[in-house]
Target: Cation transporter
Amino acid sequence: MSDHYDHELPTGRNLFISILMNVVITISEIVGGIVSGSLALLADAFHNATDTLAGVLALWTLRLGRRAHDEQYTFGYRRAEILSAGINAGAMAVISFILFREAYERFLHPVPIRGGIMLVVALVGLVANLVSVLLLHRSAGESLNVRGAYLHLLSDTLSSVGVVVGGVVVTLWHVTWVDPLVTVLVAVWVLKEAFSVVREAGGILMERAPIGLELARLEADICALSHVKDLHHVHVWQVSDTETMFEGHINVDDISVNDTGPIREQIQDLLHTKYGITHATLQFEFECCQGAGLIVNGRD
Ligand SMILES: [Zn+2]
Ligand SMILES: [Zn+2]
Model:
């Protein structure tokens, strides 16, 4: 008693171009950071490195997710996307803590900074970031990872602006503590990004119901159908951000198995069109789970 609905996946071309651009930004900022002595530029480089990692993982898991389901992976491979988002968030968290520590060192032991080089490289990074943001903007709503990569790039634009401002201040007034200050701001931003990815990916790994799904309304809709007496023992979860699974027991009148066919079709149609549920497994019963609630704390 299940049904499959196919989803179109976003094309990876723009993602690929943005990855290439990020590699270029990262390398030029690492070189620029070392030559100019600016930690903020290096911080932005590491930030971009995590974007590159996010992009590569997103591209890889988009491909992997298109693979057919098989006997080992009966849910398919879409969750690789969630795993990769988690790995990337971990990398972001580690990098931001390294940046905090390095910034603290620079506060205590300032080094001379060549503001001109810092400013030019930061400007190049900013422009490249803006182009990447425009590229990914259109496909941002399509998957958690592409949206993640997009939001990531958008925030990189902010951190690049920060480094540009830092470069201006260093060039004009030779105030070197601005450099570790901008580094800390970039690190805070990266940490914030990591947290939001962990929260969203964590919800999916915890089999949380999709945000905004009102189970009580869904129950009322199903119970309004003829012959349906109650709905109980329900589980709703997401395999990925575009696939929602549902299973539940339907207590019906003492009708023939054949008569449950039209009811099943009505329920599956309702679940799909009104609640975005892409895969439903329904167990029809006659008075066999006495006292079971909508949600059951049992093991089965
Ligand atoms: Zn970023
Ligand atoms: Zn039951």
Q: What stands out?
A: The chain has two domains: 13-205, 215-285. The chain has eight helices and three strands. Strands lie at 228-240, 243-252, 279-285.
